[in-house]
Amino acid sequence: MASVKSLTSQISALDINKKSASSSLRPTHAKHPSQGSTGKLLTKYGAANAGSTHGILKQTNPSSLRHPTAITNATTVNTTATTTTSRPPSPGRDAARMGLDIGRYDGGLETENEKRGEKVYGEAAQELALDSSVSRKSPTREWSLHSFEIGRPLGKGKFGRVYMVRTKTEPRYIVALKTLYKSEIVQSRVEKQIRREIEIQQNLRHPNVLRLYGYFHDEKRIFLMLEFAGKGELYKQLSKYGCFSERRSARYIDQMADALIYLHRKHVIHRDIKPENLLLGINGELKIGDFGWSVHAPGNRRRTLCGTLDYLPPEMVESKEHNERVDHWALGVLTYEFMIGSPPFEDRSSVNNTYRRIANVDLKFPSSMSLEARDLVSKLLVYEPEKRLPLTEVIVHPWIAKHRPKGTVRDAGSL
Ligand code: AMP
Known about the structure:
Phosphorylase Kinase, domain 1, alpha+beta, globular, 3-stranded antiparallel sheet, binds adenosine monophosphate, single chain, 5-stranded antiparallel sheet
C-alpha cells in the first residue's frame, strides 16, 4: 500500500467534481445486521442473498449474540491532529480502463419502482432532497438516472437495490449505484442518520474507504454513486474460507489501521467495524464501506451503545463514555476473527456471557495463532481505552511489518 505521503501526490479520485467535470466463517458465519444503525438499516438487513422477492427483505439469520443496542447521535473524537491530505487513486476510472463489463441489466430498477415506495411530502421531502451538485463543500456535476448505462445487479439492501453502472459520457466511469426509497427511510425514521452518513462519506478520500462520488434523487428515491468494490463483500470471503491466513489477515489489518488513522484525523469514529461492513476493491484491497454508525465532528462525549455486541469494547458494554479508542478495540477483535473465524468474546449460549467476557477481557488464544499476532491482539484488546496500542504503532508492529508486501512504504512519521 502506498504511504499517505505518496498518495498525496497521486491524482485525485474520479473527476466528477464540478472542478474537473468541465474537462469532461467458518460455516457458522452469517451476515449480521447492526440494528438501529442507519448504515446497517441501509445495508445490512437485506443482503443480495437474503432471499427477498418484493423488496421487503428478510433479515439474514441474525445471531442472538449480535444484538442491537441503543442509538443516539453524537460523540466526540478527542484527537487534535490535523486533517490528512491523502488522496485515493481513481478506482472508477481504473475500472473503466480495465474494460470491465458492467453486465446485463435485469430491468429491476423500473420493476421495483412500480411496486415499491411512495412519494414523501413536507419536511421529510426536504430533508431527503439530497443532491451533491448543490453540496456546499464539494459540489459535483448534476446527475440523474439518465446519466448512466445500467448493468448487473450487485445486491439488495434494506432500502433498495445496488447496480453496477457506467456513466454515459466519457470517460465512462464505473460506479455502484445504490437506491434508497425515501418513504421507507421515513418509515424507519432514519432521515437524519441517512443525511449524516452521506455527509460523512462524501468528504472522505482514502484508498481503503469506499468513496461516495455523488448523489441525486427523484420523487421516490435517493441514488448514491459509490465506488465499485469489484471483489464484493469481505464477509463472503470469510464465510467461504472460515478464516484467513496470518498473512492475509495482517495485510487487511494494515489497511484497516491506515484507514482508521485517516478517519480519526478527520474526527470520524467508525464505531461499527466488523467483517460485514467491509468490501474488497478490484485489486482485493479492503474498503470500509459503511458509515451508519460513525460519528463526525467533536461534540460532547456520549454514553451511547451501538454496534455489534461481539465488537463492543468494555466501556460501551458498561455504558461509559467512549471515544475513538473504540475503533482500536474493534480492530483487535477483527484481527482475531480474521485468523480464528469467530470473534474472541463470542459465547453462543448467552448474550450475558459475551458481555461478561468483554468486560473481563476474557481473551484466550488458540495455539494456532502466532506469538506476534497474539502480541498485537492483546495490545489492542486492553480494558483501559487509553492504554490500547496507538494506530500509528499498529502499522509498524512486527507482525504487520513482516507480512506487508515488499515495496510498500509506510511512513508513520508523516501520518
Ligand atoms: P448494501 O445495501 O450496501 O448492503 O448493499 C447490498 C449489497 O450490494 C451488498 O451486500 C453488496 O454485495 C453489494 N454492494 C453494495 N455496495 C457495493 C459496492 N460499492 N460495490 C460492489 N457491491 C456493492
